[in-house]
Every structure is written in C-alpha cells, then in structure tokens.
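User: Predict the structure for this protein chain, please.
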Amino acid sequence: MKNEEALFRYAVRMGDNSLVLGHRLSEWCGHGPQLEEDIAQTNIALDLIGQARNYLTYAGEVEGKGRSEDDLAYLRTDREYLNVHLVELHKGDYAYTIARSFLFDAFHLALQQALTTSTDERLKGIAEKAVKEVAYHLRHSSEWLIRFGDGTDESHERAQNALDDLWRYTGELFVPDEAEEVLAKAGVVPHLKDIQAEWSATVDRVLKEATLKRPADGWMASGGKKGVHTEHLGPMLAEMQTLQRTYPGVEW
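Assistant: Here is the predicted structure, written as structure tokens:
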C-alpha cells in the first residue's frame, strides 16, 4: 500500500470514529438524565463531529477525486465506513454510554497527543486542536464512571455490566491494519502498542477509583477497520443519511 492510499484510509477512519460516536452521543439530546448533562453530551457530540469534518475534508483532498466531507459522510455505505465497532454500538442506558465513552476517550486522548508530533502537518494541526477537546471528554466520562461505580448498588451493577459487555470491542483499537502499519513506519502516526500501554494505565487508574473490576481479556471483536460492521451501524447510517439520500445535493 502506498503512503497516499494509507493516509486516505487513516484520515477516513479517524473521521468515521468521531462522526459515528458523535452521532451516537447526539441521540441523548433532550433525553439526558439532567439538564446540565444533556447539554454536556450534546457539546461533546459537536466536538466529535467537528473533528470528523476536519479529518474527512483532509481525506477528500488526499484522495483527489473531488469528494467533500459531506460526500464522505452521507454518500458511503456501511461497508465503506472504517470505524471501529466500539463507537457504533447501540446507545444503551446512560451507564453504557458513559462506559463506552470512557473506553474510547482514554484511547482517543493518547492517540491525539501522539499525533501532535506527526510528520504530517495536517494531522498534527488537527490533533493540536482536538487534544484540548478530548482531554475534557475523558475527564467527563471518567468522573461519571466513578460516580456510577462508587455510587449505589444499582449504578455500580449497571456500570460493571456495561464494561463487561463492551470490553470485547476494545481489542480492535490496538490492532493495526495495513494503512496504520505503513504510516507508523514512516513516522506519520504512532505505533498502537505504545498507545495501548497508556490506555491501559488510564483504565486501571479510573476503574480502581470507581471500585469496578477490569474485565478479563478474551475473544475480541474486529472487522470495523475493514468495513465489516455490527448490525447497529446500518440503521444508524440510514437515519443519518436520509436527507442527502432523499434529496441529493440539497443545500440549506
């Protein structure tokens, strides 16, 4: 795989991860457990969608076929999306949403921090802006996970059940595909094994404070990076893309 193709796939994946998780969090708009939290999740969703715009715009430029951020967001099928499974899973209850966000945020912050030293100026610039936002995302999800874990018996149980269910989707975060391997060798992106060590330390620290148990490693789901997704992504994209699919080229 040539560097240009690898960079396109990487930028698309980064954009897809943020876009899909941003859409999932936006589903809480008007349904949060309290007004302040409703606003917080909506703002986090907007941060992620803003990051997705930056990555997908760059992906379109690298590809050189005239596709815009909107084309890449709204006119691809689920098999063309390259996000990891973790971000596309159903909304679940609020403990499930927080646990999923925490597991991804811990990875996302370590990755964005590493990308601030990328030899690719565009990736570096996007990361320098995103790292400030993602640091808040991780603080928010960590504090809520601790609140659930060290709260009532029911909140503790819901948080632990969510972690146990989501854990099998964390392995995919750290298994590089060909594009990531090519770019890591070129010094454009970090090696995922280095990110995993930082992620693991963050997870252990927060779970200890939350009085939650780290699930045992076992079988790990994979395939999202290759366009093979769970049953949850297709319906989500159908809803997200309905306007552009129904009225191609529509403008506000």
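The chain is about 65% helix and 0% strand.
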